[in-house]
Amino acid sequence: LHWQALLRHNQPMKPIVMAVEGYALAGGTEILQGTDIRVAAEDAVFGVTECKRGLFPLGGSTIRLRRQIPYALAAEILLLGRHISAQEARDWGLVNRVVAKGEALEEALKIAEEIANDNAPLSVQAILRSLRENQHDLSEKDALAKEEQLGWAIFGTKDSKEGMKAFKEKRKPNFIGE
């Protein structure tokens, strides 16, 4: 259960949108790294502080953080146990949006609703798989081959045909997940 809570193993096959208010240190920042879209209140504070406690960040930060932001910035957070503000996290690419205090959950829910209501479920799932599975450990050639395999399967779905028809007819598509 501990590893699942940190989103370290067996991530759900749905996009995970996270809202952060206040402090998200150590495990909070490690959970953040397992999410897909991140909204932080302007007063949010992030950091992986295990080195200041004589510990090791086993939630995946030594791997995930350096893949999500530049290496030198990840090293600064991890080796100094440094706290970073919401704005720094945004500037460094660790969070997507910074909103007023008390509004992070509302904004995250808007994003989640847009994903769920405006997009084809099979397309979202395939894109999510490609984002998560085609990491830096693959060559570009191998990653593109895996992407192509995931992507071409979507073009044969009923939702693909519905999406193109709706676009042509200038209406909202009615996706059914098939």
Describe the structure.
This protein is mainly α. Helices cover 50% and strands 11% of the residues. It is built from nine helices and six strands, in the order αββαββααβαβαααα. The chain has helices at 2-5, 27-32, 61-68, 71-80, 86-91, 104-118, 121-133, 140-155, 158-168; strands spanning 17-20, 23-25, 37-41, 45-47, 84-85, 97-99. The strands form two sheets. The protein has a three-stranded parallel beta sheet with strand order 1-3-6. Strands 2-4-5 form a three-stranded mixed beta sheet. α3 runs antiparallel to α4 and α7 (121-133) runs antiparallel to α8.
List keywords for this structure.
single chain, 178 residues, mainly alpha, 3-stranded parallel sheet, 3-stranded mixed sheet, 9 helices, 50% helix, globular
| Major sheet summary line | 3 strands, parallel
Q: What is the rounded distance between the termini?
A: 32 Å
Coarse shape: globular
- Secondary-structure element order, as H and E? HEEHEEHHEHEHHHH
Count, helices: 9
Strand order in the sheet with the most strands = 1-3-6
Q: Calculate the mean pLDDT score and round it.
A: 92
Uncertain runs with pLDDT below 50, 5 residues or more?
none
In percent, how much strand structure appears in the residues? 5-15%
Based on CA atoms alone, the radius of gyration comes out at 18 Å
Q: Strand tally, please?
A: 6
The share of residues in helices is 40-55%
> Structural class, judged by helices and strands?
mainly alpha
